[in-house]
Specification:
Strand content: 25-35%
Structural class: alpha+beta
Order of helices and strands: HEEEEHEH
């Protein structure tokens, strides 16, 4: 098991993330840093999962794959 597969990720509480979406594209603004990001559907799903709960990389892959109804391989 590698450090990457055991490390747990999350969005910090109170991050103040604002979302806008058009079709399968997302613009995300993070209040505390002032950064704006352009995300695709997979990245947006991953960020959304990490806003809701903490996850390791293997867990995140499984959750995003399930949301897209695809295999996680």
């Amino acid at each position: 098991m590698t450090a990457l597969s055991t490390r747990r990720w999350r969005v910090p509480a109170g991050a103040g993330i604002l979302w806008r979406s058009w079709a399968d594209e997302y613009i995300v603004y993070e209040n505390s840093s002032g950064d704006t990001h352009h995300l695709d559907q997979i990245s947006a799903l991953a960020l959304n999962v990490l806003q809701e709960k903490q996850a390791s990389l293997p867990e995140l892959i499984e959750l995003v794959a399930a949301a897209l109804c695809v295999e996680s391989d």
